[in-house]
Amino acid sequence: xxxxxxxxxxxxxxxxxxxxxxxxxxxxxxxxxxxxxxxxxxxxxxxxxxxxxxxxxxxxxxxxxxxxxxxxxxxxxxxxxxxxxxxxxxxxxxxxxxxxxxxxxxxxxxxxxxxxxxxxxxxxxxxxxxxxxxxxxxxxxxxxxxxxxxxxxxxxxxxxxxxxxxxxxxxxxxxxxxxxxxxxxxxxxxxxxxxxxxxxxxxxxxxxxxxxxxxxxxxxxxxxxxxxxxxxxxxxxxxxxxxxxxxxxxxxxxxxxxxxxxxxxxxxxxxxxxxxxxxxxxxxxxxxxxxxxxxxxxxxxxxxxxxxxxxxxxxxxxxxxxxxxxxxxxxxxxxxxxxxxxxxxxxxxxxxxxxxxxxxxxxxxxxxxxxxxxxxxxxxxxxxxxxxxxxxxxxxxxxxxxxxxxxxxxxxxxxxxxxxxxxxxxxxxxxxxxxxxxxxxxxxxxxxxxxxxxxxxxxxxxxxxxxxxxxxxxxxxxxxxxxxxxxxxxxxxxxxxxxxxxxxxxxxxxxxxxxxxxxxxxxxxxxxxxxxxxxxxxxxxxxxxxxxxxxxxxxxxxxxxxxxxxxxxxxxxxxxxxxxxxxxxxxxxxxxxxxxxxxxxxxxxxxxxxxxxxxxxxxxxxxxxxxxxxxxxxxxxxxxxxxxxx
Length: 646
Ligand SMILES: Nc1ncnc2c1ncn2[C@@H]1O[C@H](COP(=O)(O)OP(=O)(O)O)[C@@H](O)[C@H]1O
Ligand SMILES: O=P(O)(O)OC[C@H]1O[C@](O)(COP(=O)(O)O)[C@@H](O)[C@@H]1O
Ligand SMILES: [Mg+2]
Hints:
Layout: H1 4-14, H2 20-27, H3 37-42, E1 45-54, E2 57-69, E3 75-83, E4 108-110, E5 126-127, H4 134-137, E6 149-151, E7 164-169, E8 175-176, E9 185-189, H5 197-212, E10 217-220, H6 226-229, E11 232-234, H7 237-240, H8 260-269, E12 274-279, H9 281-296, E13 302-307, H10 323-342, E14 347-353, H11 360-369, E15 374-376, H12 390-401, E16 403-409, H13 414-418, H14 437-451, E17 457-461, H15 464-468, H16 474-492, E18 498-503, E19 506-511, H17 512-516, H18 527-536, H19 544-568, E20 578-580, E21 583-585, H20 594-602, E22 617-622, E23 625-630
Parallel strand pairs: 4-7, 9-10, 9-12, 12-13, 13-18, 14-16, 14-17, 15-16
Antiparallel strand pairs: 1-2, 2-3, 5-8, 6-7, 7-19, 10-11, 18-19, 20-21, 22-23
The structure holds adenosine-5'-diphosphate, 1,6-di-O-phosphono-beta-D-fructofuranose (FBP) and magnesium ion.
């Protein structure tokens, strides 16, 4: 009867992940419990302790092999090596489908993507045509193994290696579920522009054509709405040959227009069976809705998402295409701002970069440049006045260097500006419309220096749309090619409802909803932000909460002051709350004669109940630190020389 030792030896010889040294060491293993082979071949699990000797070090490891059978696609081998301290080494316990989130316990989990055989289990498969393609047969191990997974976290504890979430590795499979002449693919681009869109389109078209022999590829014109309101464009390698050298998208794009029923009807009416959707978080959420509906209808149509966002705010993936290009192009604006600033006395160059909710472009552009003195991002609320505020820092840097450069991400400081210009407006996709932090900062800085009679020459550069409209750079071009290829390999292999992207350097298939349920934001507790702070030596604005609380207290005190003042004038204040277009006046005053006087002083006179007072001077003392100057465009009801303790 064969022993467990030989069973393990034979298993090990089939596991490519081990180095030769590890394999040798493992083959000299000492089984803790010898078991008859009959038990092993009949069960799905081999589990034993082995002594490992490799690299001159000895360690006892626990090895587990588990075979799980997945519907329609043969077996799946999960494998790993754990350490003695672990109760159980990496186990692939559950195959999760249809975007369901795994029930993670203390072991490894595969967050799998759906497959058309989930609802069409009898679909036939075919050998991958790549196996006869001279370019690819030259490369050994070109095909991805069914059990290749990519770990979400690669920094692990030695005592628990291999734990946590894993994704299916992207790449070509031995078997495909589409014959080339059966495929009718379509490509759509949605949302904002981003460098590299054309490269992705080009590589999907050329990849399908040359690798899989697909000849029927349609371009959807103008985003989601184009599915049902515009004509399609027939795409060929010839047509897309040069498009990667151009910015924008040859297909056009749009926000809004996601009508699930109309889109799915158009997909079916046109006989499309592979849908490639390029877009950001909103677009990917829309892609998930389309996938769900196609699945519900039980049709053989796969949906592949290619994540696009210049802001780099899509979760899980290492970075999004176009981001590198944006950071590189931002250098030109920063350089210009620097040249302008250093050419004059007290020169400040202010550059606004994109970044609605996350400040990655600003952070990386700052780190890359080394000319930036201060980087403001949405993740770090900042304030202007008082100790540790921006005004103080600008003065300090100007004293030291005579000039400075500020980079601000467009989503930064929104809460400060919003106080004055309350808006709930959003675009066709429901994205909140941003207030222009660049202009607001410009105005605030200029006014603050003018009031203090200090010279300041400020040059404001807003290159945002110029950055986003350029073609992708060399590194993004290669990246876009990999994304496109990952997408077509996945679609041809029958996977659906997935988005692609590199996870710790290896491309993976990620359930769409897993990629969109959270947003990638700069982690200000991470060392990268510390690197930025140390490179600029800017304030950390950690007192933000305290300062804002102070302002609120001052505002409240000001209301009381106004109330008292009106009352002492013999007027009868009417205490009521009025909501005027989102602006709430705590106290409104009704008085004919007092109207103009009060309006001048408080801007809250009859007939002016709707107006807010803009740009009042304030002088606050917050926990001993003086906050002086104008609060830009902040709404403030007649506060002057008030003191508040928070
Ligand atoms: N939750 C959603 N469900 C369906 N479609 C959505 C959803 N969110 C956004 N979309 C659609 O996705 C498209 C692009 O979204 P948008 O947020 O503008 O850009 P991005 O994809 O770049 O984030 C729009 O057509 C929008 O209508
Ligand atoms: O003016 P538009 O087209 O609405 O786009 C502006 C927004 O798009 C963004 O570039 C983000 O878009 P994506 O994430 O889709 O690339 C933001 O930084 C910016 O606020
Ligand atoms: Mg978006």
